[in-house]
Design a protein that fits this description.
2 domains, homodimer, 249 residues, 10 strands, Alpha-Beta Plaits, globular, alpha+beta
Chain lengths: 249, 249
């Protein structure tokens, strides 16, 4: 029977989502909990990998188990066996046709910054310290990313993606107490793409690059015209949207 | 020369403020950084101890150093040598008469909860998961604590305090996104007092105790009529107030 899971994790101590030979990963931890709970080796397939240190509040995954139970029970069975950095927020039975990766229609990431002259250890685990964050200026540049673009300049080298064209549905910049959040929603993201996009908005707001630089980075793929790729600590996968026929998570 | 420091820390991995034989503490970590920076053994004296696991955004301390420098430089000298869970937010030269503990006029603590049926690892480090948090009900009971009271019923056994009478200036309950914050401001606090007060507000909001229970806990010191002492993870020392003659932190 196929189940869908909505998962949150503090990515700080993980080497990302995907199982690796060396280093603990979110996928490995979930598969260990499944083995412990049900005695089976099952593969937990996510909507997509998250990199080392990246957090999630709404990662979605599917898993096939030779066990029939009320969908919600799976979350409890796993949570009692998971380390405190991971929690299954909800679970349900999913149709056989559901694939957490291939069925995904939209994903939303959030990149968070806080302004402080010195590091704040309470904010620092889930946000990047910056010297200034002009939300209004970031919004001016944010609209340039919306639509279908070739994000070659925003992709780390070594990516195996077949195409670097992606569609961005929205880029919103919001204030939340001392924090500045950049929400990016799109049909898919290349390796490091959100962190480089956020770095580009930050650099634009600091006057280090111009709108013309951003436009030519999208039109001509010029990597030297985009901002720095920001650290993983500020990035969080917020939600994955499967449309009206998606699982009831 | 005497210096004052404003310090923030993620208390999760510390056995509280005060130096101990076994276990890492915030005070020990600061004193190690001072030894490394200036080659001296100096005692860093806080406004008061915080317990194991308790956080701070505005702890204040003083330290005497045989070094003369611009006050702000001390923060940078220490931050480059401190672990990532502690940060000196600001520092200044303080008058010889300044004593971080004895000169303190008011302290403000915050206890934070979030409502969720399952644990959320992103919120869980600095907040307590609860099934419900009725801020309006908490506010009704919060006023009962304001003023001068004998907080004997709110003090963990084994406290060495000479008197259990304290004055509470305000108890405010505020919503912040998914979080409920209880701010408690007073002239001083007994061991576990804020955590027990917060637990009492939570129990009142859940209908487990009445206003009469709270009143008699304050008038007669009856411990069985107060709520549970809540875990350290939700508690944060927000600020210490020294009045208009305090250090310019």
């Amino acid at each position: 029977m196929r189940y869908a899971l909505k998962i949150a994790y503090d990515g700080t101590r993980f080497c990302g989502w995907q199982v690796q030979k060396n280093g603990n990963t979110v996928q490995a931890e979930l598969e260990r909990a499944i083995k412990e709970a049900f005695g089976v080796d099952a593969r937990v397939c996510a909507s997509g990998r998250t990199d080392s240190g990246v957090h999630a509040l709404g990662q979605v995954a599917h898993v096939d188990l030779p066990v029939s139970m009320a969908g919600e029970r799976l979350a409890d069975a796993l949570n009692s066996r998971l380390c405190e950095d991971i929690s299954v927020l909800s679970s349900c039975v999913a149709g056989d046709g559901f694939d957490a990766n291939r069925s995904a229609k939209k994903k939303t990431y959030r990149y968070t910054m806080y302004v402080s002259s010195r590091r704040n250890p309470i904010l620092d685990r889930f946000a990047l310290r910056v010297d200034s964050a002009d939300a209004e200026a970031m919004r001016e540049a944010a609209v340039l990313f919306c639509g279908v673009h070739d994000f070659k300049a925003y992709c780390a080298s070594g990516s195996s993606a077949l195409t670097t064209v992606r569609e961005i549905y929205s880029v919103n910049v919001e204030r939340r107490e001392d924090l500045t959040d950049i929400y990016v929603c799109g049909n898919g993201f290349l390796y490091n793409m959100v962190r480089t996009l956020a770095g580009t908005l930050l650099w634009y707001s600091m006057g280090k690059i111009s709108k013309e630089d951003i436009i030519s980075s999208l039109e001509e793929g010029l990597r030297e015209r985009v901002g720095k790729t920001l650290p993983a600590r500020g990035l969080c996968l917020m939600s994955v949207d499967y449309g009206s026929r998606g699982p009831a998570l």
